[in-house]
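Example record

One chain of 308 residues, shown exactly as stored in the release files.
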Amino acid sequence: MRQIGTLPDGDAARRLADYLLTLKIETRLDQQPEGWIVWVCDEDRVTQARQEFAEFERNPADARFARAARTGQEIRLREIEEDEDYQQRVTEFRERMTEAPTNPRYATVLVIVTAVFVSWMTNFGQPPESGTLQYLWIAPKGETQLTQIAHGELWRLFTPIFIHLSVTHLLFNCLVFYSLAGQVERIQGSPRLIWLVFVFAVTSNLAQFYLGHPINSQLAFVWDRSSQFGGLSGVAYGLFAYVWMKSRLEPQLGMQMTSLTVIIMIGWFFACLTGVLGPIANGAHAAGLALGLIIGAAPHLWRELRPR
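Predicted structure tokens for this chain:
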């Protein structure tokens, strides 16, 4: 920090400091018996600051100094707000790291238990024409419109996430779901997780019904639409994207997402899109992923873009 001069008047010193701040030159003012000493914090800007100081001494009433006063004050207020926000986030992060988790994983376990029970009771979706499954699919077999939902069978928007078509399908989805949903529920509570699961489930199920999935038929890709789909994977991709955004944009929450997990999830997403792996609910994956990115990033983007 270097001294660039002394001004007799405090108002003049503050006006000069505000002007220098608009040039991104940080200063400090020190009141002494002989006047107000102006210090420059950045050694690399001392020469420029001294030139501006000399200009100010010659004509302190110059309009550019007056105009800069308000701008400099706005910059200072913004810096104060940002510093207070940062300190608050640091405090919250420390509290989360030192306090024991207060939110158990009841909702996470409930969803998994329901998925296991429904998958077992429906014999893993076989045969798809069974009476129980006809009430759990988003639409009965052969239907191309959501007529039953329009007539009040609203549970169909949600229940396909509990149907799994094989033991491997069930185990993989439950493991991924437990890791992601448990993290959300532990940090943000059961109501937030339940809301996210509902939104991701409805969105991914509707997307899958209307978009369908590609199938590899005799080396030719055919786009197939069917109401006989199920699984937690659409919800899992929504939670994955949500946790990913929170870990990057709001680290103070304490959510974590490793680079390896991101690579695996994105890699599996694109591998499924090829159609080589069979009839996979790619529409559900894509809808969950997109919505998770939006919900996870929206609060941070709103704070960054809103007028201060």
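Notes: The first strand starts at residue 2 and ends at 7.
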